[in-house]
Amino acid sequence: MEKVLVTRRISENALELIRNEGYELSVYSESRDLTPMELIKMCEGHAALLSVGPNKIDEHFLNSCKHLKGIALMSVGYDKVDVNAAIKQGMPISNTPDVLSEATADVAFLLMLSVARKAFYMHKTIERGEWGFFEPMKNLGQELYGKTLGVLGLGRIGLELAKKAKAAYGMEIVYHNRSKNQNAERLLDATYVSFDELLRQSDVLSVHVNLTKETTGMFNLTTFEKMKPNAIFINTARGAIHHEEDLITALQNKIIWGAGLDVTNPEPMDRNSPLLNMENVCVLPHIGSATEETREKMAVMAAQNIIKALKGERMPQVINPEMYQA
Ligand code: DGY
After folding, report:
1. Is 225 a catalytic residue?
2. Whose CA is nearest to atom 2 of ligand 1?
3. Which three-class secondary structure string do you get for the chain?
4. Out of 46, 208, 243, 286, which one is annotated catalytic?
């Protein structure tokens, strides 16, 4: 009987789908990440890998695990995968797009509003016993009505956020992408702008691009300096897209107004990070897709992809379709 390695405990329904197709499962359930060598070792005797968490699927791994029929990631992001090496190796790899767009956009929206009203910091003041007498000029946030939302990467998640921002606050939508999103322009009257214009015009700038060589460190002191002093920076994509020390400098020096992060650099973040004590900053521990509904859909999608790979069929959410071209 062929075996599938699953690197974290996931939804029982998803595991059942795989079992029902006649495959055996090994589910790694320790509360720590596998080292690259441990992952390679564990893949021995398995025909496919359902990878959950930050496992590096690099050239070394792919060369060491040529026997796998396919790898299904339980994430939309695939920055830990060396896609070119996978193509060279003939290894089909899938991800879980679409099913997490709404949940992740919810977190971007939550952060946008929480930063604008200093919500996390205000909560902490109560815990510290600092809820004193009413001072009308204290604890003031900013409103979002009619402001401009800039979206870097207006794809599935960015579009969901833009829809919410437009519906809730009538926000103007500007965006920068590799290519124009005609659907968003029609639906939301969104305007395509250059990256520099995006920095210049956005009151809230939300990042929804993949982490690549080009996007690594894209938000640094130089870019923050081009943003408005009232700007709120939101990152729910990948922490390495912003330079964290530069973000701290930009906030400390009031170059930008605030930041909302669901992703940090590194993760987990240092609990002594100055970001955690700033009034206009809200940080969450990478929970964009963490709802019961979404994690269930992601697990089932990953399971369906693994089953296809094991049967030698095309994985529906393959990230390297070159694999299937004759
Ligand atoms: C994703 O799916 O890429 C989320 O960020 C979880 O890693």
Report:
1. no
2. 75
3. CCEEEECCCCCHHHHHHHHHCCCEEEECCCCCCCCHHHHHHHHCCCCEEEECCCCCECHHHHHHCCCCCEEEECCCCCCCECHHHHHHHCCCEECCCCCCHHHHHHHHHHHHHHHHCCHHHHHHHHHCCCCCCCCCCCCCCCCCCCCEEEEECCCHHHHHHHHHHHHHHCCEEEEECCCCCHHHHHHHCCEECCHHHHHHHCCEEEECCCCCCCCCCCECHHHHHCCCCCCEEEECCCHHHECHHHHHHHHHCCCCCEEEECCCCCCCCCCCCHHHHCCCEEECCCCCCCCHHHHHHHHHHHHHHHHHHHCCCCCCCECCHHHHCC
4. 286
* Superfamily of structural domain 3-97+292-324: NAD(P)-binding Rossmann-like Domain (3.40.50.720)
Q: Which atom of ligand 1 is nearest to the CA of 238?
A: 5
| pTM, to two decimals | 0.96
Q: Where in the chain is the domain with CATH 3.40.50.720?
A: 3-97+292-324, 101-283
Give the model confidence (pLDDT) of 210-267 as tens digits.
999 999 999 999 999 999 999 999 999 999 999 999 999 999 999 999 999 999 999 9
Catalytic residue among 238, 242, 243, 295: 238
Report the nearest atom of ligand 1 relative to the CA of 75. 2
Identify whether 292 is a catalytic site residue.
no
> What pLDDT does 326 receive?
67
Query: pLDDT category, 130, cuts 50, 70, 90?
Result: very high
The preferred substitution site among 76, 241, 263 for testing ligand 1, maximizing ligand atoms within 8 Å of CB, is 76
Q: Which CATH architecture has domain 101-283?
A: 3-Layer(aba) Sandwich (3.40)
Annotation says 46 is catalytic: no
Catalytic residue among 12, 24, 214, 267: 267
- From atom 1 of ligand 1, which residue's Cα is the shortest distance away? 75
